[in-house]
Automatic annotation (TrEMBL):
Species for this entry: Trichophyton interdigitale (strain MR816)
Protein name (Swiss-Prot/TrEMBL): Enoyl reductase (ER) domain-containing protein
Domain (Enoyl reductase (ER)) ranges: 14-274
Keyword annotations of the record: NADP, Nucleotide-binding, Oxidoreductase
Organism placement in taxonomy: Eukaryota, Fungi, Dikarya, Ascomycota, Pezizomycotina
Family, per entry: Belongs to the zinc-containing alcohol dehydrogenase family.
Amino acid sequence: MVQLPDKQTALTFGNDGNLRVSHEAQVATLKPDMIIVKTAVVSVNPVDTKMEAGFSKPGLIGGCDFAGVVVAVGSEVKRNVKVGDRVSGAVMGSDPLDPSSGAFATYVSAPADITLTLPENVPWSVGGAMSTIWFTTGQALFQNLLAELDVWPILRPAKESKTVLVYGGSTSVGTTAIQLLKLAGLRPIATCSPKNYELVKGYGAEEVFDYRSPTCAEDIKKATRNNLKYALDCISTKGSIDICYGAIGRAGGHYTSLDPFWESTANTRKAIKAT
């Protein structure tokens, strides 16, 4: 175990609600089930900007995603991780219950069970940008949208290859969702700009549709024979929910949005569950 300092450099929230550089941020105390990582890289997520807009308190450390080298391992950590390992992970930044939590810091305290070991051939820039994306996508798909199917990538694939629409297929969550759906034995289709068709198909989308087309919803409905049941909305705008609702088949289904959705559209079709 490396001897840790009491203070560190971090990005903390000031009284004005903006992040600032602090050289006096508290280093987290090592907890039995946690590891401490010296960060090599951190990344910015949409949620970080939302924390800045009214959810922050002075002194809290911002940021969720990080990658770096393990410098301390708690006494009750059960997974195979040791000092010197390269890992990637995510924590709750701007946490009022744990002011020392947050990725925008020299040292990060993280749950060992949800950190990923990074092979040497994976660049820091990749490792530092993937954890929140994977956690968000996994929860949105398998603990929400598709919970009734009881499927899981590789470990518990679907018995029937149902079609799932990924609205915003070229986004970080969208490309991740497409890959996870394929691994779960499902059939992903997606919307994106025509310039991104090949990119999205390369990740596994079986059909792609231009979200700017005035007939996008009808095109999807026709391609799925009016039987589409599941839609993941990675964009979460009025336009995106309108297309998703228009594409879901006559029998209804389940719509999941990454952000709060438009109730006015959700109320137009009671046969669709919106979450």
